Amino acid sequence: MCCENSKTKPCEEVSQEELCCKDQHDEIEDIIDMAYEGDFNVEELMKEKAALEGELADLKRQYEALYSEAARIKADFHNYKRRTESNVERLRNSALTEIMLELLPVVDNFERALNSEEDKDTPLYKGVSLIYRQLLSVIEKFDMAPIKSIGEAFDPSLHEAVAVEEISDTELDGKIVKEIQRGYVLKGEVIRPAKVIVGKLTDETEEEVGKDE
């Protein structure tokens, strides 16, 4: 027994590594013995190797198919998420636009009331002016801003010309001289164009300009 020889390690002290090395050594010896005894069939081993390689190839194809399917599902989900977020944003902006369009007539009425008041020092005017500024402050928080008009060149994408006014100032030709109704943009999109009057040189002024040229 292994414990009887005093020069050998006690059985309980034999390491796992030593046992593993012994098993591998025994296995190699068995293979050598099989080869010498003629039991080591190379042809059978080659067939088994070919079969294993075939199974490995099948598993590889299955893996590639599953990987491709997972990638497709991931891409579909990404596209679905992007479409959903886009639709939600579109609906939110549409709802906000409707609300602001309902609010604009109120803003217009405040502006008319303030413009028609001659005495700017009355408590009423100051109170209405305060409420108007608060209303504009709320509007600005939603990224809505008025369209610049007076003195600007007429832009059909921003302005709606309701009339043309003859002028003698050449610098105002084709520019907006009066604003009838203020326009607004919401998040960079025009929700109501500004109604304006555009300046046009009188015939006499055009003739004089032509002579000077």
From TrEMBL:
Pfam families: GrpE (PF01025). It is found in: Cytoplasm. The keyword RNA-binding does not apply. GO terms for cellular component: cytoplasm. Keywords: Chaperone, Coiled coil, Cytoplasm, Stress response. Its main location: cytoplasm. One of its GO terms (biological process) is protein folding. Residues 42-76 form a coiled coil. InterPro entries: GrpE, GrpE_CC, GrpE_head. Gene3D superfamilies: 3.90.20.20, Head domain of nucleotide exchange factor GrpE. GO terms for molecular function: adenyl-nucleotide exchange factor activity; protein homodimerization activity; protein-folding chaperone binding; unfolded protein binding. Belongs to the GrpE family. Homodimer. Participates actively in the response to hyperosmotic and heat shock by preventing the aggregation of stress-denatured proteins, in association with DnaK and GrpE. It is the nucleotide exchange factor for DnaK and may function as a thermosensor. Unfolded proteins bind initially to DnaJ; upon interaction with the DnaJ-bound protein, DnaK hydrolyzes its bound ATP, resulting in the formation of a stable complex. GrpE releases ADP from DnaK; ATP binding to DnaK triggers the release of the substrate protein, thus completing the reaction cycle. This is Protein GrpE. The lineage of its organism: Bacteria, Thermotogati, Synergistota, Synergistia, Synergistales.
